[in-house]
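Researcher: I've been going back and forth with a colleague about how Phosphatidylinositol-glycan biosynthesis class X protein might be arranged in three dimensions. Neither of us has a model we trust, so I'd like an independent prediction. The organism is Halcyon senegalensis, in case that matters for your notes. Sequence below.
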Amino acid sequence: CVVLDVQAACPDATVTQELLKEGFHRDLLVKVELSLVGEDAGGCAVAVRTRLPPGIYVDPYELESLQQHNLTKAVLIPDVIDVEAPEYLATDLLVLLYMEPDPWCSHCFRATLPVHGRYHRPAEERGEALVVLKSPEVLVCCCDNRLSTMCWKPAEVEAPCSGRTNSPCQWYSVTHKPAYEESILRVPVGLRQHTSFVCVVTLLATVLCSSLILAALCKYGCFS
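Model: Here is an independent structure prediction for Phosphatidylinositol-glycan biosynthesis class X protein. You can compare it with whatever you and your colleague have in mind.
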């Protein structure tokens, strides 16, 4: 678990999220700063629960590789994701992202999640589609301590507190104030007026490549 060596009563949190890099392949950086005063919260883990809209997804194979190297930890719901589906055939994705302590801030936590933009339908005018990411929910799980129900709201999350055990424990939702209500991912899309040109170029490229493969096969192939 992520241990909080503080006394905390009715904590709240400040949340910021930022999209790093450009294009379709981005990193979602989430930061949480807790304000804890009064009640013992030692032995607690911190996570955020965020809902990704259909226009963006997490590659489960990439995430599995990162988790094997202890670079990030997250739970995907559902855990089976069609990474090839376009935006208009995809569904929302719920992500529980475990946070790590920020070495530069004693009450701060952070985590990075690789995300990818999906292909969208061609647009009429603008060459980009906007994918809106809402502010995530902050969760705290105290495996060893009982927290005051006066301050903490139980959350319906069935996931372990940390990687130490697979047994689910009780998560609590923490009141938080987002630095920004939402973040926006701008995904490049094609324009409808370019459809004919793209189809012609694609057809010509297909015919040319097929001809080159056929010619090489006839020249170097071994036929018995």
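Researcher: What would you highlight for our discussion?
Model: I'd start with this: Residues 134 and 189 are 22 Å apart (CA to CA). After that, consider the following. The two ends are 67 Å apart (CA to CA).
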